[in-house]
Please model this.
Amino acid sequence: MPVASVAFISGAVALPASAAVGHPPRATVGVRADDSNPNREPGGGAYGPNTCKPGYVWRDSYDGDALCVTPEDRQRVHDANPNRQPGGGAYGPSTCKPGYVWRDSYDGDALCVTPEDRQRVHDANPNRQPGGGAYGPSTCKPGYVWREKWEGDTQCVTPAERDRAKGHGRQIDNGPVLTGIPGL
Model:
């Protein structure tokens, strides 16, 4: 992907045009503790502390993904993103084929989609900050917060909507009281 020398304004900061499509390296994201990467060579090896045991390879689904999996599992992960550049490229293993861009629906979302599909996803979250911000592409406009209904839910909503989505302020129904009923 050629690097453009033009700039655009994001908030009050001028960024190079390449930053609009750039994806921050995820070298520390997804790095797993030793106990959750059981196919790693104990004590490391030729490729450092994340050297895989024989017969295993790095999943390589994003820059810095060193989880050791079987070659078949890695291929399944790569097949789930069919528009990525085989073998990677200038932006690591998540480099998209020409004509495709990262979806960027959350920080680190490197699924390769058409620019129209990315815009549809961004339009579905109308309260996100155009161009992103301090929290990546999922930064909300002032006055909005992430819904956080589940891990990774970055839909921008009002604080009251988030409380409703998370169930705050609701009485929890524990069902009928069954004490005193014979046989229970």
Q: What stands out?
A: Strands lie at 7-10, 13-16, 57-58, 68-69, 101-102, 112-113, 145-146, 156-157. The longest helix spans residues 71-79. The mean pLDDT is 74. The two ends are 69 Å apart (CA to CA).
